[in-house]
Amino acid sequence: MDQHRNDKSNESTGHGLNHSADENAIRNQDAGGVTEQPSQGGVSAPAASRKSSNRAGGELFEWIKALAIAGLLVFVIRWFLVSPFIVDGDSMRPNFHDRERIIVNKILYDIRQPQRGEVIVFHVPEEGRDFIKRVIGVPGDTVKVEDDKVYINGQQIEENYLKEAYEKAHASGDLYNKQDELSDFPNDRFPDGKIPDGTLFVMGDNRSNSEDSRMIGYIPMDRVVGRADLVFWPLNVFHFIGHD
User: Fold this and answer.
1) How high is the pLDDT of residue 27?
2) Mapped to the 3 state alphabet, what secondary structure does 174-204 carry?
3) Among 72, 134, 137, 145, which residue is least crowded by beta carbons within 10 Å?
4) Burial of residue 126 (number of CB atoms within 10 Å: 0-12, 13-18, 19+)
5) pTM here?
6) Is 127 left (phi over 0), alpha (psi -120 to 50) or beta?
7) Which 3-state string (H, E, C) describes the chain?
8) pLDDT at 143
9) Which pLDDT score is estimated for 1?
10) Which residues of the chain have pLDDT under 50?
11) Of 96, 82, 87, whose CA–CA distance to 130 is shortest?
């Protein structure tokens, strides 16, 4: 904030004053006071001081108002538009890693429905925490997962976000989605592959190390927090998140 200079009062020198005035000036100085003369602009020192004080008070009020508005914007953005989250675990490797910080868009799905390939964060009340997974199927889709092949409505989909991981596993003669009783879908726990209205089918990118719709079932839309749009920490991996 700019500092404001008070008008400096003229000191009495005794020139052009009568003897009585000189005595008054000396007495005032002896008492620790300084005689005050009208400024050249015709405004007395106390009036100038009040003007400077009012100006400083006005600027302070403007700063307080600006900070209050900034605080309100941060609150609105933080709680209603976007929110930071920390990736916990390896279920989304190789595209997300443990302890990475992400920004989640919380308003997007108030405007439209989630789409296949988008990475979302959602509540899992049974476990008291949030999960991050990828949307594989939307309401009305029929889903089938068989080894490293994923079928939507009978058509195998290309998962570009896992292309290198698939190629690396297959080059070594292995499957990326390693076989166990819950790797495929539908399975004994969830034998119906058609996604009900108001729900989503999600899977982690790390297929053989992910607790997802193959184990916990379809995800109700009212549990979805939003779409993961940005990795902002660590800084060396800062990037916007692709969704195809």
Assistant:
1) 43
2) CCCCCCCCCCCECCCCCCCCECCCCEEEEEC
3) 72
4) exposed
5) 0.69
6) alpha
7) CCCCCCCCCCCCCCCCCCHHHHHHHHHHHHCCCCCCCCCCCCCCHHHHHHHHHHHHHHHHHHHHHHHHHHHHHHHHHHHHHEEEEECCCCCCCCCCCCCCEEEEECCHHHHCCCCCCCEEEEEECCCCEEEEEEEEECCCCEEEEECCEEEECCEECCCHHHHHHHHHHHHCCCCCCCCCCCCCECCCCCCCCECCCCEEEEECCCHHHCCCHHHHCCEEHHHEEEEEEEEEECHHHCEECCCC
8) 97
9) 41
10) 1-43
11) 87
Backbone dihedral region of 238: left (phi > 0), alpha (psi from -120 to 50 degrees) or beta? beta
The pair of structure tokens assigned to 5 is: 């200079």
Whole-number pLDDT of residue 17: 38
What would the two tokens of residue 170 be? 């297959």
Both tokens of residue 176?
């990326």
Catalytic residues, by residue number, are 91, 133
The pLDDT tens digits of the residues spanning 91-119 come to: 999 999 999 999 999 999 999 999 999 99
The residue written with tokens 């994923």 in the block is 150
Cα–Cα separations (whole angstroms), residue 45 to 48, 67, 157, 163: 5, 33, 82, 79
Residues 6 or more apart whose Cβ sits within 8 Å of residue 42: none
Half-sphere exposure of 188 (CA within 13 A, CB side): 3
Q: What is the pLDDT of residue 83?
A: 84
- Return d(Cα 218, Cα 198) in angstroms, integer: 9
